[in-house]
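FORM 12-B: Structure-to-Sequence Request
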């Protein structure tokens, strides 16, 4: 059965382009040009498995729809927006968006992010991701094991907790606030210098060139993303 995408985008040209492209990929596309259209489609209860959400819409802000969705559903939401300001992006992630793409973005990137978001929603219902491979790196969370190039890598307990948090959301951006709260605790959400320090240590141990990371990526002003694993 094909997966349903609710595409909320008021730019007619972009909507048509995305609809055609998602169609080719086998998704069933429901397109909405406004918040009202989107609410009507959601109310009719046709299968919506993932939402692509623009923010600037003629009858309001997409953020309002995100809040409504999160009150009742866990459907993944990817924000697609031209806004570059950092604060709203962080707020959107904290409000329950799964990811965001800043326009213009490539179709390949969008499809990859959709796959990750759908897989995460699917796997959280079954089993959490506990094993991660990428090139010569292997992480097995239950065994607390990290191997790089066939050699065991020693991580401190905090380094391991931070890596584990990113492995569970591999492929997705995790905000500074989420990482600080989950690794250090709710009282530490402003201590971004901890993150910079520990991310530097992790990169030194897990990256070929820590100055040019290929695995532990920075999302400027927002958070970090461990690239999608290869399993
Ligand atoms: Ca718009």
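FORM 12-B RESPONSE
SEQUENCE OUT:
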């Amino acid at each position: 059965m094909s997966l349903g995408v609710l595409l909320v985008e008021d730019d007619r040209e972009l909507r048509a382009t995305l609809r055609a492209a998602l169609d080719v990929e086998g998704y069933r596309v429901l397109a909405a040009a406004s918040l009202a259209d989107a609410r009507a489609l959601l109310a009719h209860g046709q299968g919506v498995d993932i939402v692509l959400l623009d923010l600037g819409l003629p009858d309001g802000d997409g953020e309002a729809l995100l809040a409504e969705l999160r009150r009742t559903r866990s459907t993944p939401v990817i924000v697609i927006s031209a806004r570059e300001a950092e604060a709203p992006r962080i707020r959107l992630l904290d409000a329950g968006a799964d990811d965001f793409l800043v326009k213009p973005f490539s179709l390949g990137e969008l499809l990859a992010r959709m796959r990750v978001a759908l897989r995460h929603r699917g796997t959280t219902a079954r089993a959490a991701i506990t094993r991660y491979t990428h090139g010569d790196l292997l992480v097995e969370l239950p065994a607390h094991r990290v191997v790089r190039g066939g050699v065991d890598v020693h991580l401190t307990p905090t380094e391991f907790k931070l890596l584990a948090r990113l492995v569970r959301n591999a492929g997705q951006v995790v905000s500074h606030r989420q990482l600080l709260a989950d690794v250090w605790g709710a009282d530490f959400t402003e201590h971004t210098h901890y993150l910079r320090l520990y991310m530097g240590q992790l990169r030194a141990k897990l990256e070929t060139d820590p100055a040019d990371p290929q695995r532990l990526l920075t999302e400027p002003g927002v958070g970090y993303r461990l690239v999608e694993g290869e399993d």
